[in-house]
Amino acid sequence: MMKYKTLPIILKDMKILLIGGGKVALQKAEVMQRNRVDFECISAEYIDEFKTITSKQTLKSFEITDLNSYGVIIDATGSTDVMDELLEHKRERNFLYNCVDVPEVCDFFFAALIEYGTLKIAVSSSGASPTLAQAVRNKIKRVLPHTLETLNHELQIKRSTGIIDIKQAREEASKMLGRVTLVGCGTGDVDLLTIKAYKTIQSADVVFIDHLISDEIIEIIPKGTMQISVGKQKGAHSVKQEKINEMLIEYASKGLEVARLKAGDPYIFGRGAEEAQALMQENIRVDVIPGISSAIAGPLSAGIAPTARGYATNLSIVSAHLAGNSINTQWIDLLKMKNHTTIVLMGLSRADEIVKAALEAGADANMPTAIISNASRPNQTSVITTLKELPLAAKDAPRPGIIVFGDVVNLHEVLPQYETQEEISDEKIA
Predict the structure, then answer these.
(1) Which of 70, 337, 362, 402 could pair with 298 in a Cys bridge, judged by C-beta atoms 3.0 to 4.6 Å apart?
(2) What is the pTM of this model?
(3) Where is the active site (predicted)?
(4) Which residues contact 311 (CB under 8 A, 6 or more apart)?
């Protein structure tokens, strides 16, 4: 049952008297000053911080004759004597009364405010728990964009000149409130998600899922969340990139929180930059959460350090795949560099062409080479081979996989290899 019957309202142009000069009074004064409310203060003493308050401050003890014609009285003295005196004269003086932290005698409560210029959002617990109201206020503030102040100002100007287009205003507000977060989901191990990625997935209204997103990660999407599959498999592109961009814009423009789950890191051969640009051109808010790329996690999972003293002081990450299903070989000369590691993504199906170009360029045919597939997943595999033997090893290697070239491949014999939780659990049972 509600203890108090309340109705949140906005008061305007009220004459307000604040009684008190301590920390509690200061907090109320700061709220009113930020909101450009006219008020005056009376107190026998003021803490130093009151110097930042520009409203009139009278240095004296409060007397009932100080009420004058104030319509609102805020009592922040903490004095029961002042409270009793005000309550005794309240009816005949006809003012609204707020006694801080004494809700049973208050005519109104201060709400927890979010202020975006003249746009204000008030959260009230009807006096039950100011702490809860503040927590809810803080949560809302983290979600809403600061650009709301600009939009509200623009709409206010239009309204004052007689231009009122409700449909357009609604569309502009929805677009501004919507957001797309490009979530880097790493190699598929749910334990390798960042905390921010996990929270984003949990709070999204709709989730767009890539083909390479693991079942583990899909399982943490809340049951009631809309899921849209936009995975693009080699040779079977189910949704074109342009269409994905359009869909992201469409759902974000409805004011929804959209999580776009992308394997690895969104900006490492993940076309995340293209999606971010398309969204920003439509004034859609975009966040990007980094993920662990297979280019980094793959070698680690196989016990290979991409850079290590005595083995490699440089590292290159390249893609063997170009638009139109053509091969990229511009990086081949990297294989001739000393103390260098080259990691190739999307190259398994091009192994024959890579080796041919590398040998023609003068690369060492016996260069240590590794293929790591499904890095950090239960079905992870790794094959250690050489440059000249790569085509044979790649023929049966599971996809997706990466290729690692360089002396660092030899470290797989001495460095630890990644174990999934499933593997660890099986060992403990055994």
Answers:
(1) 402
(2) 0.75
(3) 210 (proton acceptor), 232 (proton donor)
(4) 305, 339, 341, 406, 407, 408, 410, 411
232 is catalytic: yes
Note every long-range contact of 206-210, with CB atoms under 8 Å and residues 24 or more positions apart, other chains counting. 206/251, 206/256, 206/257, 206/258, 206/259, 207/258, 207/259, 207/260, 207/261, 208/244, 208/247, 208/248, 208/258, 208/259, 208/260, 208/261, 209/261, 210/185, 210/261, 210/262, 210/263
Query: What is the tens place of the pLDDT at every residue in 190-205?
Result: 999 999 999 999 999 9
Q: What are the CA-CA distances from residue 179 to residues 35, 202, 210, 286, 332 (Å)?
A: 28, 15, 18, 6, 40
- Cα 249 to chain center, whole Å? 17
Which part of the chain is CATH 3.40.50.720? 16-110
pLDDT digits (tens, 9 = 90+) for 85-114: 999 988 788 899 999 989 899 999 888 888
Q: Specify the fold of 16-110.
A: Rossmann fold (3.40.50)
- Of 90, 158, 196, 232, the active-site residue reads 232
Tokens 């210029």: give the residue: 117
More confident of the two residues 339 and 150: 339
What is the arithmetic mean of pLDDT over 227-256?
84
CB atoms inside a 10 Å sphere around CB 100: 19
pLDDT digits (tens, 9 = 90+) for 15-48: 999 999 999 999 999 999 988 889 999 999 999 9
Identify whether 165 is a catalytic site residue: no
Asked if 412 contacts 382 with a C-beta cutoff of 8 angstroms, the reply is: yes
Amino acid at 15: K
Residues 138/163, Cβ–Cβ less than 8 Å: no
Domain with CATH 3.40.1010.10 in the chain: 180-292
Which carries the bigger pLDDT value, residue 137 or residue 363?
A: 363
CATH 3.30.950.10 residue spans of the chain: 295-413
CATH fold group of domain 295-413: 3.30.950
